[in-house]
């Protein structure tokens, strides 16, 4: 399954039972956040409980984007699932560390390692 979302440039794939959302934007900021959050929330509502957000194209996020990621993380957890990040650029990771979100969100260097992390031990 591969879908292209209108507005915010996202692609959604599925691999090994994990829904992968690739953010194809260099800056994840308002006004894209509402549509971005709606796309992820729709996946959670549809029963997708293993979500991976690939941020490898994103070079900048603001505090609103971090808040949005945290909200989506909590939404996935409340639904019995998990949300993880992959491909986080250094500048974005710095923002996540400065806000404390790095302590909550699970970050993997790339998609393959993130997908492997969803497997039971």
Structure description:
This protein is of the alpha/beta class. The chain has one domain (3-117): STAS domain (Transcription Regulator spoIIAA), CATH 3.30.750.24. Helix content is 39%, strand content 26%. The strands form 2 sheets. A 6-stranded mixed β-sheet has the order 1-2-3-5-7-8. Strands 4-6 form a two-stranded parallel sheet. It is globular and about 30 Å long. The termini are far apart. The model is unreliable at 1-6 (pLDDT under 50).
Low confidence ranges: 1-6
Order of helices and strands: EEEEHEEHEHEH
Report strand order across the widest sheet. Answer: 1-2-3-5-7-8
The CATH class label is Alpha Beta
* Mean of all residue-level pLDDT scores: 92
Structure summary, number of beta strands = 8
Topology-level CATH name: Transcription Regulator spoIIAA
How far apart the termini lie comes to 27 Å
Strand content: 25-35%
What is the 3D shape? globular
Count of the separate structural domains:
1
CATH superfamily: STAS domain
Concise overview:
The protein is α/β, with parallel strands linked by helices. It is built from 4 helices and 8 strands, in the order ββββαββαβαβα.
């Amino acid at each position: 399954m591969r879908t292209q979302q209108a507005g915010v440039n996202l692609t959604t794939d599925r691999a090994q039972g994990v829904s992968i959302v690739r953010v194809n934007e260099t800056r994840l900021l308002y006004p894209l956040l509402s549509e971005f959050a709606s796309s992820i929330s729709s996946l959670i509502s549809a029963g997708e409980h293993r979500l991976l957000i690939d941020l490898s194209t994103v070079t900048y996020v603001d505090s609103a984007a971090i808040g949005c990621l945290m909200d989506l993380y909590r939404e996935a957890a409340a639904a019995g699932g998990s949300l993880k990040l992959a491909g986080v650029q250094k500048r974005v990771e710095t923002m996540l560390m400065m806000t404390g979100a790095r302590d909550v969100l699970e970050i993997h260097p790339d998609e393959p390692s993130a997908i492997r992390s969803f497997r039971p031990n």
